[in-house]
């Protein structure tokens, strides 16, 4: 169904296996989801993607749950079904409550609506917003 | 430049003026940005949009700054230039630090990248993500 | 500013000039907008695009104004600023009233909102919708 | 499969049930499609979405069928599979003929094509389109 | 599952059959994929789409495989699942190697990421890029 | 105009300056375009983005010009004006001819059109495309 093979653990190259080991250690679970399995045929892309994701999604100026909410928002706007599923699951695992999920949906819907209105109106950017 | 007139205060209908009064009272500023001015020719749409926005973007299970970050994320993914400008300004006004802005950008960029990879790979949704 | 030259009438090849002549005759105006001028460096693409557009946008099972409204809707969703400007102008020229414009905006905004909600919810298609 | 439970009638809260009652009365059918069932866990969002949709999609300056065609156009451009299915079904129920459907497809395809060409060409907006 | 019937060969009108005959002759295979079968209810749109596709995707200043890679890139960015499947299959049939596929994915992912960053940053176009 | 400052050389941190030095050395030009200048406030994101871009866009299984064409295609579909300008300039610098540019535009337009048609038709993926 995917455009590349979905590799199970036995089919991994040593370089891909090392990435899977790090995914498992970082996430403290044996489960490795299909995104990584469809990327695994290209160990260089797999490693670059995982290493960058791990760095970006960890704690920092924004907490990990907030980052998942942002990730979901982008994934919805880009219409990526897999990504909505996987990051909604990740957000729940990081403690997203039903009330937070409901508000996330409301904000995403509102933003989509006003984005469309602004584009239809071709509203010019206010001078006040142009001062860095 | 817009596809509808950008109404200044003198040109407002009484219904639109009432919405502008509420925008000013709610935001504690006399400034009303162009989005509302290009919507103001249609007081019903203006009122419906403002009333809903006010309700959604206030404090709740998610704090107002987090909601602005989500709004920016959707606006970026939808390519709405005006919206990116106005909600980045709003996020700064609500206390977004430079470090938070930088992390927001990194998460948005990462999400856009993995969204595209997943779509190119046509990765099937894992069973584990399908349990509500 | 464009990625190809914006050709004025003197710079047209004979093949491009013939297309411009037909645009002018069909639209009963001397004005030829920039879209065609930026396409004119490639007379084959210019001719193919114009001929198809002329055929599709004429009267048929849907009237020309309805077709312009649909064109605006797609252009908004695709975030094409030029297209929103040019097709809103075209719709006005074909008789779109302010009230119709306002309702068009409301429908576009509503559709963008529910599109986003459905994608965030990953709502499965009802069986009732799957019967051709 | 959805990211929220798909509620059947027995699982509805009283507030959600009231919205479902209005959907059934307005549409004169007992069938309530999955979109509303996946929204129903959040009665406030359910009610706000339904009430606004009912108001916007009713008769006005544009007839209900034209509004459905516009809705389909936005849904296609946003790549929302569920929405294309549900609004195509709604348009057929409101009388969309095969010939109208065929022309709708042709216009949507044409708009997508010229949107892409304009974006690739970065065609500047004509002065003639900038006069309100 | 489609919004129009998926016509098998027996159900084709003579005009649609002529297009199918040309598809088979051009591609040197009896297989006609579902895209054409769902378009076939409208022979005019079917013929216009096929004739234009055949002309554009043939050899020219760009070779057919490069054109397929470009087609995949657009299809991914537009989130068209069917199109990603069909054009990835077409690219493989035209000789795309695994290494080329892997690089295509990396470029698409990178472009999606920097597109999003630029939009979030609202980077102004350099003067150097504005000289046609 | 950007949402972050556009840093000139004097304002760079040492880490950002090192990246700019590498951009200049790699591209054999003193010119550093605004994308990097708006990213430069966050040296970590700047370095990660540049290092990855340099690696991906170099020669490999696909030649650098083909990669630029793919980059333009994604940028068009994502509606990123800056990116279309900068990568069209880059493609010209790498030898893209006018005829190649014209064919690129035709393919992008065709793909956008059939993407939209497929989404409107909800064409199901052929079994033949599902064999990895």
Query: What class would the helix/strand composition of chain A place it in?
Result: mainly alpha
- Give the name of the CATH superfamily of the largest domain in chain A: AhpD-like
**How does the overall form of chain A come out from the CA principal axes?**
elongated
N to C succession of SSEs of chain A: HHHHHH
Low-confidence stretches of chain A: none
What is the CATH T-level topology of the largest domain in chain A? Answer: AhpD-like
Largest sheet of chain A: none
Mean pLDDT of chain A: 96
Please work out how many helical segments of chain A DSSP would assign. 6
Oligomer: homohexamer
Rg of chain A, alpha carbons: 18 Å
Instruction: Label the CATH architecture of the largest domain in chain A.
Output: Up-down Bundle
Number of strands of chain A: 0
Distance between the termini of chain A: 47 Å
Strand % of chain A is under 5%
Number of domains of chain A: 2
Helix content of chain A: 55-70%
Largest interface: A-B, 69 and 69 residues
- Name of the level-1 CATH class of the largest domain in chain A: Mainly Alpha
Tell me about this structure.
6 copies of one chain form a homohexamer. Chain A is mainly alpha-helical and about 130 residues long. Chain A has 2 domains: about 5-55, AhpD-like (Up-down Bundle), CATH 1.20.1290; about 60-125, AhpD-like (Up-down Bundle), CATH 1.20.1290. Chain A is built from 6 helices and no strands. Chain A has helices at about 15-25, 35-40, 45-55, 65-75, 80-95, 100-120. In chain A, α1 (about 15-25) packs parallel to α3 and α4 (about 65-75) runs antiparallel to α5 (about 80-95). The longest helix of chain A is centred in the C-terminal third of the chain and has 24 residues, at about 100-120. Chain A is elongated. Chains A and B meet through α2, α3, α4, α5 and α6 of A and α2, α3, α4, α5 and α6 of B.
């Amino acid at each position: 169904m995917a455009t590349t093979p979905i590799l199970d653990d036995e089919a991994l190259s040593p370089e891909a296996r090392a990435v899977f080991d790090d995914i498992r250690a970082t996430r403290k679970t044996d489960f490795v989801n299909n995104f990584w399995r469809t990327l695994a045929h290209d160990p260089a892309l797999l490693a670059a993607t995982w290493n960058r994701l791990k760095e970006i999604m960890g704690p920092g100026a924004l907490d990990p749950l907030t980052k998942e909410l942002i990730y979901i928002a982008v994934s919805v706007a880009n219409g990526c079904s897999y990504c909505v599923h996987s990051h909604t699951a990740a957000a729940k695992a990081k403690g997203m409550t039903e009330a937070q999920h409901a508000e996330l949906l409301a904000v995403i819907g509102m933003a989509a609506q006003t984005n469309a209105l602004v584009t239809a109106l071709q509203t010019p950017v206010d001078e006040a917003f142009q001062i860095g």
